[in-house]
Design a protein that fits this description.
Layout (H helix, E strand, L loop, with lengths): L1 E6 L5 E5 L4 H10 L6 E5 L5 H12 L3 E3 L3 E2 L13 E2 L2 E5 L7 E2 L1 H4 L9 H8 L1 E5 L12 H9 L3 E5 L2 E5 L7 E3 L5 H12 L4 E5 L5 H13 L2 E3 L5 E5 L8 E3 L4 H13 L3 E5 L7 H9 L3 E5 L2 E5 L9 E2 L11 H8 L5 E5 L10 H6 L3 E5 L2 E5 L8 E3 L3 H13 L3 E5 L2 H4 L5 H7 L3 E6 L4
Parallel strand pairs: 2-17, 3-16, 8-9, 12-13, 20-21, 24-25
Antiparallel strand pairs: 1-25, 1-26, 3-7, 4-7, 5-6, 9-11, 10-11, 13-15, 14-15, 17-19, 18-19, 21-23, 22-23
Helix pairs in contact: 1-2, 1-7, 4-6, 5-6, 6-7, 8-10, 8-12, 10-12
């Protein structure tokens, strides 16, 4: 099993390219099941979650090629060149023959549930294992199932599997009692091939939802209102394969923004989109960082000193729960006391005990972490508990005195592409190695 070793105290400086967004790629790959033929996706990050989704699609009969695929000049292409680009992923859904997602493939990644809507819409049946993923709190899929039932699906849950079937999905009205990103995405995909009009109320407004709607529209779907809390989908009888380029990963971008801030650095993030990061920009500004908006990204100049500021996580356009752990790492070194309220997942403070091992002064009560800034953190052996907690510990290690050893970094590989390489190029002293006995 790999571990990451960081010698802290190095100032980060330079440029870094933001990878394609994991949370956009996964639903786009699921959406290819709505079509028959070859779709080409550019900018796909090389992550474990992406590989898991590809193995899942392969189990169903999908074939794929990665990394080098010749592009073809197409009317629906984002980029109408005819050449070879190294980050293209070609996905061929011509011979899908098994509309099932087995437990062994689903258990490690919650986003696997995203195949349920497309399979049901195109094939009239689906059998999908109840999902797994990071242990950050209860994330039931009942809202997905209620939404699909509103479109006419028959749902059964037995032996750990969801079995769904229908003659053809019919448009209907869906109201989500709680905002759900993957639920909104599942219903968007299912409704695109349903007969009639579907209205999704209290829909998620995240950029990744808007991205999926953009891709579905390129396939031929008729969608209005993506990015608002009400989305209307007029079903069509057929969707076609497309060639698309994936949006940049706003959580990776936010993580590197904090990395610059916590190390006293000066980092430019190429390909970062400010409109996806307004809440992070605002809070880093309150902490004293200078944020420069550039034509092709963002420049972050570290605060001196770091000022304490409160955050409260909420669905987009609020402060993302996926940035809470990283921001907490920054606040451990701020002057003063900050309060971090987690409102999305009830079990997303598992990184607190590891930060405390490094000398952080944090107390947690009733979903609020009170962080009293300390003059310095000390490197220590720590253990990653989930994906964003892994990033939090990397950030803390970059700023700490001495060596930080982070174990269980397979969590990190689910959501960050070559993070140690990117940080090294910015000046960090960081390396990955095999743990003893692995």
């Amino acid at each position: 099993m790999d571990r990451i070793l960081i010698q802290g105290g190095r100032r980060l400086e330079g440029d870094v390219e933001v990878s394609g967004a994991k949370n956009a790629v996964l639903p786009i790959l699921a959406a290819t099941l709505l079509t028959s033929g070859m779709s080409v996706v550019q900018g796909v990050p090389r992550l474990e979650d992406v590989r898991t989704m590809l193995r899942l699609l392969e189990h169903m009969g999908v074939t794929w090629r990665w990394p080098e695929v010749p592009t073809v000049r197409r009317a629906d292409s984002d980029n109408a060149r005819a050449d070879v680009v190294n980050d293209f992923l070609a996905v061929d859904t011509t011979r899908v023959n098994t509309p099932e997602a087995p437990y062994d493939l689903v258990k490690t990644m919650r986003a696997s549930i995203l195949v349920l809507g497309p399979l049901l819409a195109r094939y009239g049946r689906a059998r999908v294992s109840l999902p797994g993923g990071c242990a950050i709190g209860a994330r039931p899929i009942n809202l997905h199932l209620k939404g699909l039932e509103a479109l006419g699906a028959k749902i059964e849950i037995e032996h750990g599997y969801v079995t769904a079937y229908c003659e053809r999905l019919m448009g209907g009205k869906v109201y989500f009692e709680t905002i759900t990103v993957t639920g909104t995405e599942n219903l968007l995909m299912a409704a695109s091939l349903a007969e009639g009009v579907t209205v999704i109320d209290n829909a998620a407004q995240e950029p990744e939802v808007v991205e999926l709607a953009r891709v579905l529209s390129r396939m031929g779907a008729k969608i209005e209102g993506a990015g608002t809390n009400t989305i209307t989908v007029e079903g069509v009888p057929l969707l076609l394969p497309v060639e698309v380029k994936v949006m940049p990963d706003r959580i990776e971008a936010g993580t590197f923004m904090v990395a610059a801030s916590i190390t006293g650095g000066d980092v430019t993030l190429r390909n970062a989109r400010a409109e996806h990061l307004e809440a992070v920009i605002a809070k880093l500004g309150e902490a004293g960082a200078q944020i420069e908006r550039q034509a092709d990204g963002l420049r972050v100049i570290a605060p001196e000193p770091i000022r304490s500021t409160d955050i409260r996580t909420s669905p987009f356009p609020g402060f993302a729960t996926d940035m809470q752990a990283q921001f907490m790492a920054l606040m451990t070194l701020a002057s003063g006391t900050s309060r971090i309220s987690e409102t999305v997942f009830e079990n997303r403070f598992m990184h607190v005990s590891e930060l405390q091992r490094m000398g952080a002064d944090i107390t947690v009560e009733a979903g609020i972490a009170v962080v009293r800034g300390v003059p310095r953190l000390s490197g220590a052996p720590v253990m990653a508990t989930d994906l964003r907690a892994s990033a939090c510990l990397v950030l803390a290690g970059l700023a700490a005195e001495g060596t930080t050893e982070i174990s269980r970094v397979y969590h990190l590989d689910r959501g960050y592409e070559r993070i140690e390489e990117k940080l090294s190029r910015l000046g960090a002293e960081i390396r990955r190695e095999k743990a003893a006995g692995s």
